[in-house]
TrEMBL record:
One Gene Ontology cellular component annotation held by this UniProt entry: ribonucleoprotein complex
NCBIfam families the UniProt entry points to: rplD_bact
Name of the protein this chain belongs to: Large ribosomal subunit protein uL4
Species this chain originates from: Polaribacter butkevichii
Functional description taken from the UniProt entry: Forms part of the polypeptide exit tunnel. One of the primary rRNA binding proteins, this protein initially binds near the 5'-end of the 23S rRNA. It is important during the early stages of 50S assembly. It makes multiple contacts with different domains of the 23S rRNA in the assembled 50S subunit and ribosome.
Length: 209
């Protein structure tokens, strides 16, 4: 699949790049995508939720009423979860939600995500660019030139670029990552995936193993 290379003003440079069919042209595997996205979202969870159980509630330990003869249910502690102010029964406890996935499955999921975006014409290749200093306005100008200022976008760079990253940090709908940091959720969550020309090699290397 050949794609035109644009500059940061949105104009066609007259050059084209060949997208690897092994990365951008495979038959998407929906189950691999599901598992990789599920893992990503699970890893975002802090898992610090906690409610007090009856053993952690401050209160009297005396038996609140006699065992028999009241005509109601037996009750031994005011801290029981059936009473107001008592501990919560089977409440949440701190836990780790993360789980592991096979590396090959994760590669398949990411290739599937890129293939979906490429097939839907949501993938743009641009020349490498840099800013002299970190300015949000510079990044907004790039978004406007590419006509994606109102859309969620993912910019993929070959290497870490502090000026470009800092320029995008205040924009909620734009995200900048390195080629080695691509994940399935980020690719599919974006309306447009903007890939710099030099990062294509890194993507192919990381996902073709």
């Amino acid at each position: 699949m050949k794609v035109a290379v644009l500059d940061i003003t949105g104009k066609d440079t007259g050059r084209q790049v060949e997208l690897s069919s092994d990365v951008f042209g495979i038959e998407p595997n929906n189950h691999a995508i599901y598992l990789d996205v599920k893992q990503y979202l699970a890893n975002q969870r802090q898992g610090t939720h906690k409610s007090k159980e009856r053993a952690e509630i401050a209160g009297s330990t005396r038996k609140i009423k006699k065992q028999k003869g009241t005509g109601t249910a037996r009750a031994g502690s005011i801290k029981s979860g059936v009473f107001r102010g008592g501990g919560r029964m089977f409440g949440p406890r701190p836990r780790d939600y993360s789980f592991k996935l096979n590396k090959n499955l994760k590669r398949l999921a990411r290739k599937s995500a890129l293939s979906i975006q490429a097939n839907d014409k949501n993938l743009v290749v641009i020349e490498d660019f840099n800013f002299e200093s970190p300015k949000t306005k510079n990044f907004v100008d790039v978004l406007k030139a590419l006509e994606i200022e109102t859309k969620k976008s993912l910019f993929v760079l070959s290497n870490e670029n502090a000026n470009v990253y800092l320029s995008s940090r205040n924009l909620k709908k734009a995200k900048v990552v390195k080629a080695s940091e691509i994940n399935t959720y980020g690719v599919l969550n974006a309306n447009k995936v903007v890939i710099t020309e030099s990062s294509l090699e890194g993507i192919n290397t990381n996902l073709s193993k």
